[in-house]
Amino acid sequence: MKFSYYPGCTLKTRAASLDEAARLSAEALGVIMEELPEWQCCGAVYPMARDEYATKLSAVRALDGAKQSDQPLLTLCSACHHVIKRVNNDMRTDSEMRMKVNNYMQLDTPYAGETEVIHYLEMLRDAVGFGKLREKVTNPLSGRKIAAYYGCMLLRPSSVMQFDNPENPSIMEDFIAAIGAEPVKYPYRNECCGGYVSVEEKSIAQDMSRRITHSAASGGAEAVLTACPLCLYNLNENGTGEVQVYYFTELLAQALGLKTVEGGLAHAC
Amino acid sequence: MLVDEAEETKTIVKVSGVNAKKCMKCGKCSATCPSFAEMDIHPHRFVSMVEEGDVLALMQSKSLWKCLSCFACVERCPRGVEPANLIEAARLMVIRERGRNRLKAEMIPSLLDERMPQQLLVSAFRKYSK
Ligand code: SF4
Ligand code: SF4
Fold it and tell me: What pTM did the predictor assign?
């Protein structure tokens, strides 16, 4: 199982643990993540305007890079996944954009949305299989009550993202069960953490993040998992502090016996 | 600067790709918007204001800076209208004008904390500045 891999800027810096635990775990699961030889920041938000082209080029370059290697493109950060998957959909379905982007890029072969974009969680579910993952777990998180936080970017708009049921997703809960913990479902798991407004209006992000962490804690969760560095930041900085927030790959690496996460969760396992 | 509201409306319709006529005015977009309480003009009104050609008020609205691009209104609209695309287009009409950037590089040091992910700054710059 071999994938081209797009890490993204934050995974090289603040969210290095999200990336590092993903690579370690992939190796243990027999998955090869081949980092694209060249990649640029995806821009972190999908440009919705129909006349924005330049802001979508970095995603197209990453997609074409994977096409050159004839491999699916693996993503990890929710925001990168969102941007790259939606730009790919545009390249497939919007003939005007396809023409303008290809006119500008002058690739040997025009890019038309051929690459398959796969999030790491989808890779675990579809390429490895949660049953197989369960077999590989050496250090199950038995007895731990853990909640998934999906946020917005992985799920919406579901017509393009096709990640899971946008209102009642289960992939992260299935992942939590596969690493031996008990998944906790709670009402706010697919609501927004406040996203980028927290840079200038902390109070908005506080209202939203507090609702999420409080809702998870009320459901009995001791920890919350995310795939997004901005969600992790908002839930930690602007939440109620009732739950610990981890990247899902950190607990994956721990369950596979590769690495122990920082914080309290390690000790009781 | 003299602004032609009819022209601005046409541009917003084109840039957003939204067909406001599809809206059946059910209000679900506003009901589901997590930023509803912060906004002076709400998502269902983005749609009717564009339909009515009343976009200058929308372009002055504080809602431009309160939308989180969470796509809840897009996902849950029963008519596939995509209200978020309209507020994005209205925001772009503002920041594409010289000197209208909301976020400036010199503001960043005072907003930073050491745990802030790069993703946050990139997103905010993409949304608030050109
Ligand atoms: S949810 Fe859709 S149809 Fe209903 S008011 Fe909003 S835009 Fe109109
Ligand atoms: S995308 Fe913006 S307008 Fe739509 S529900 Fe989210 S915050 Fe509200």
Answer: 0.97
